[in-house]
Amino acid sequence: MKKFGLTAMMLAGALALGNASAATVIKIATLSPLSGGQSDLGTQIKNGAQLAVNEYKAQFAKLGFDLQLVGYDDQADPATGTASARKIAADKSILAVVGTLNSGVAIPSSAALQPSHVAMVSPANTANQVTDRGLSNMNRIVARDDAQGPAGANFIMSNLKAKKVYIINDKTAYGEGLAKEVEKALKAKNVQVVAYEGTEEKNDFSSIIAKIQLQKPDAVYFGGIYNQAGVFIKQLRDKGLDTPVIGGDGFDSAELATIAGAGANNIYFTTVAAPIDALPAAKIFAGNYQKAFKKPAQGFGAFGYDAGKVVVQGVLAAIKNNGNKLPTRVQVENAIRKGAFSGLLSGSVTFNSVGDRKAAKMYVMNVQGGKYKLATTVNVSAPRN
Amino acid sequence: MDLSTLAPFLVNVVVGGLVLGFVYAIIALGYTMVYGVLQLINFAHSEVFVTGAIVGYEVFRVLEPSPMNGYLKLIIALIAAMIVSGGLNVLIERLAYRPLRNAPKLVPLITAIGVSLILQDLLKIIEGLQGRFDLTYTLPQGFSNKFCATGSSCAAFGDTLRRIGVDLQVKDIILVVVALLSLAVLNYLVNHTRLGRAIRAVAQDRVTAGLMGIDSNRMISATFLIGGALGGVSGVLFGMKFGTVNAYSGFDPGIIAFTAAVLGGIGSIPGAVLGGLLLGVIQNLIGVTNVLGSITGIANLAAIDASYQRIGAFIVLVLILIFKPTGLLGKSNTEKV
Amino acid sequence: MTAAPTQARRRQDMTLPLLLLAAVTSLVLIISQHGDVLARLGGLGTFLGNPLVRAVVLSLFLANLLFAYRWRTQPWAKVLVGAACLLLVLPWAGRDNTSLFDTAIQIGIFAALALGLNIVVGLAGLLDLGYVAFFAVGAYMWGIFGSGQIATILKYYGEHAGATNAGTLVIGLLLTVITAASMLFIRRAGKGRAPSRASSISFGLASFGLVAGLTLTGRALLVLNAAKAQGLATGLDAGFFWLFLALSIFAAAVMGVLIGLPVLRLKGDYLAIITLGLGEVIRVLANNLTLYTNGSQGTPPIKSASVPWLDALAGRLGFSPDQYPLFFLYFLVLIIISLIILVNIRLDRSRIGRAWIAIRDDEVAAQAMGIPLMRTKLIAFATGASFAGIMGMIFAAKQAATITPESFVLNQSIGVLSMVILGGMGSIPGVILGAAVVTLLNLSILPSLGEATANMNIPQQVNPAQLQRLVFGVILVVAMLFRPEGLLPNQRQAMQLHEGEDDNAPAVDSIEADSGQDAHAEMASPGLAGREDDERTGGVK
């Protein structure tokens, strides 16, 4: 009975695939958590990349290629991510990957992809180690921890004039890495760090808030993702504390203000993605996203879109360099590492020798009364060339 | 740091822990009821509880524009969540546990895990189809206000409370009151009604209870109904207290609540409550250990920050169970052969 | 999909069908992984290239091993099929698709974990929900020493030497030896008698001293070796891999005893929740002890041993250099798994194996028959832990780039438990099958559903790629409802209960085989309060 069902499914799959093999297929893969607790973030990345692919489909069709996107699920688990990466490596029609969400997955996956030179462009991994290994295939469009952290720290010192800072992280590679860099930068400038602590708690922050009430910091830095930080901010404001809360690009989501509710005040975050109002392209993107996925676009969607665009433009460049023929993976890898990409929501991108973004404009966004405004911009550059 | 700042701080931490503990306690009751009759860790209870939270979210969302009294909205939300979660729990029992009544004990445990996975994704689909993932509660006006805020009739009382560290919101009070009410109702139901007596009989000895004319399947269904309804209540309270739920947010509180049930002595209703409250307080106290360490000058304590909250609770559990292997209020009998 | 064959077919000699099936599936597997050949096959090639079809082909291919085990055939055919599939065909196909190696190693790892947990849960009846902790211990053993992390640690101790010198080392060693000896002495002196309060207190004190001695020794060793930090920037020499294979077994077993000592006197679900908690403790410690594990950032790149002649062989066979480590690990896993299976078979039939089953079925009776409860349970815990330890190390070597605490979450423990129950508790082939089925589902079949439907017009909310948990949950529930005894239930138990009946009887009846545990459920229980099932029994009081 089971076998019969499988056979039927096999046939169905074959029929569905049989129709679509006229042009040479070029696949772009995404690698992100599509199932489980982090699936919302992972799906945003996949959706964003999907929009980028849709945008360039026609252009590829003109050249005789059928551009497709395949979403791979890493379940936010390093072992599953590695296994998926090896599958991607084995599928020769996949030329590049957009991924991942978690650094703990990105590091082994990119190592698994490296021997077959599948280029990877990360929309979210800020941990220094991701590119510090100098892999030829690993690039990222977001700012490194040691660029983003100091940017946040500088803002805390010069714009908020804080003397005492309370640092919290979410005990993930992302949040802790970022918070560590903030701590380092603040301590270097002799700002008092009253506490540096991690928490995996997603619901109840009463003990941390009690400590904040006791120690009265001038600012709180939260290295983490918006759905955890939002709950924290809401509870902080409920206790009558108006302390500014600063975060990284993990805060970049309209949900942050929704979750924090009436407490969505005095929140700042650093991100490379331009505010939606600043760029006409961002508005179009938000509209397309809503139309395609019946969901409002969020930060990770924008990052996924940008990473997807880098990948697609890179593949396109490789095709052109190769005389409009199917490029090899190495050619794509080179085209991405050496190319210049424009028209992104986060400006234009070029990568340095290890795949970090050479120079980026970092926006410091401010949330007041649930509205997102641009507070200031900071220029950051990669530590190496 | 002197006593006049430290004492309110500690009171604040303990009170926060107690409120949290009430949420754990009600979730723990759902586990403990089911465990009492079937000796099964109902892994799916965390999703039953999330279902309640989502139902509550939907009720508050739909009723948001209506000028109805906030407390009425809450009662509607609670009742709806109780019905849906209770019904769901009964359904789960019928489909996934009852056919395995005589299978080895671990088999229903695996179906429970399976059901839990299924429900997580189903809830995600249901909300996802409407373009939502993280659901944020929109509470009725006033629920987020401070309890006895300045300007209210009890302002002086509120000030006194705040001076000793008790700083509560209206929703915290509602939470504790609803939790206590459900406890009272549960206690009456289990200890003073025919139904309760029958359930206890089934829990004690299913076969003999059957010989006495008790339909054990019906009693087990009733237990799941009650446990599920409690799950629904705890879901709404959870959503109210923390503001946000998603399809996967049941896992963590579920584990803690089950730990609370074990700590109190699994199968025991007062035990579950005691365990929940204790875990809430312990968690919060461990969360502030580093501050206490820096105040008392014990450097080693300073390293214990909020990231140890969860495992601190587990270590306390280990210590308590070593000295009292059946939990705090679990009865110990000699094993008969 | 790897459903057991029917009665009638098993009666006849199946040598020919087995060989035919093996040949066909092997051929299809190799073709389906080979891109160039697929391209030449046209429509059939597209069909075989479909991710879902590939996943099914891989499952069918692996099912050969099951058939070879189950079907009544000539013994040489079984050996031939097994050896050819594992040693020849799979590596061959893996040359074209490295992910097959990854999947195969992962199946091996989980099979070993499941076998280990099977001893704890299936044989000894101790529900352990924190089993992944031992896996983590093994992984971090090599993850720390086989990577640059050890240099970081040494450097730290070099800078924070305190008053440590050679004297500290001597004191530490002395303390360790003396306390260990006194612990042995107390145990020996108290043999055959119920431990008195004085003996338990002195035993506790001695064990405290032992921990202190070990800490001092370890610290002194680290400080005294701090100067070597420079030379260890990428970790110990890969040659130490072999030593650490033994050490990881040992470390995990010691961990098993340490965790087991306080908790094994608890019973039933109290044990379950406490092991769950301790598993979390290990993970949180791995996340917080940044000096040793580099916390959430993950360890630096981890080495793997390399065997020159094996690499040369792989090179000769056309494997690319980046595949050498996986090629090596694949065969290493095969060897280790065979050893573990052998150990399991020996244990199953040994005195200790019978003692475990006796404890599982009725603790009080077992004790009355003179089985030392605590020691027997501890051995079960330590044996199970050691399997996880060695596989943890292989996992670290396989991941190579880094290991992070994310790999050791509670869900992994639950996953391994579901493999054991799904396969058939207490049955060695059963739990291996369970591990293979669950791992294949998670790494191959369910993801391929998503890949195959990627470009179909399905709303993303209900896209199978997003619903792996749902599908997995449905499979778990359906499998348990229709085969509660597991896919390949324990034959011995089934046979014991059905003497004289057809020894190939469908094992549905073996529900009763496990009813020893179930008997507890029927015993009197004081209301909704704690049940006697959870009561501590004599001997350890």
UniProtKB/TrEMBL annotation, chain A:
Name of the protein in question: Extracellular ligand-binding receptor
Record carries keyword 4Fe-4S: no
Endpoints of the signal sequence: 1-22
Keywords annotated in UniProt: Amino-acid transport, Receptor, Signal, Transport
Lineage: Bacteria, Thermotogati, Deinococcota, Deinococci, Deinococcales
Leucine-binding protein domain segment(s): 26-371
Organism name: Deinococcus maricopensis (strain DSM 21211 / LMG 22137 / NRRL B-23946 / LB-34)
InterPro entries: Leu-bd (IPR028081), Leu_Ile_Val-bd (IPR000709), Peripla_BP_I (IPR028082)
GO biological process annotation, one example: amino acid transport
Pfam families cross-referenced by the UniProt entry: Peripla_BP_6
Protein family according to the UniProt entry: Belongs to the leucine-binding protein family.
UniProtKB/TrEMBL annotation, chain B:
GO molecular function: L-isoleucine transmembrane transporter activity; L-leucine transmembrane transporter activity; L-phenylalanine transmembrane transporter activity; L-valine transmembrane transporter activity
Entry's transmembrane regions: 6-28, 40-59, 71-92, 104-123, 173-190, 222-243, 255-278, 285-304, 310-330
UniProt entry keywords in alphabetical sequence: Amino-acid transport, Cell inner membrane, Cell membrane, Membrane, Transmembrane, Transmembrane helix, Transport
Main subcellular location: membrane
Localisation: Cell membrane
Pfam families noted in UniProt: BPD_transp_2 (PF02653)
Membrane topology summary: Multi-pass membrane protein
One GO cellular component term: plasma membrane
Keyword Transport appears in the UniProt entry: yes
PANTHER family: BRANCHED-CHAIN AMINO ACID TRANSPORT SYSTEM PERMEASE PROTEIN LIVH, HIGH-AFFINITY BRANCHED-CHAIN AMINO ACID TRANSPORT SYSTEM PERMEASE PROTEIN LIVH
Protein family: Belongs to the binding-protein-dependent transport system permease family. LivHM subfamily.
Protein name: ABC-type transporter, integral membrane subunit
Automatic annotation (TrEMBL), chain C:
Annotated TM spans: 51-69, 76-93, 105-124, 131-154, 166-186, 198-220, 240-261, 268-286, 327-345, 378-397, 417-446, 467-484
Keywords from the named record: Cell membrane, Membrane, Transmembrane, Transmembrane helix
GO cellular component, one term: plasma membrane
Pfam families per record: BPD_transp_2
Topological relation to the membrane, as annotated: Multi-pass membrane protein
Chain intervals with Basic and acidic residues compositional bias: 530-541
Subcellular location: Cell membrane
Chief localisation class: membrane
Region annotated Disordered, chain positions: 498-541
GO molecular function, one term: branched-chain amino acid transmembrane transporter activity
Name of this chain's protein: ABC-type transporter, integral membrane subunit
Taxonomy of the source species: Bacteria, Thermotogati, Deinococcota, Deinococci, Deinococcales
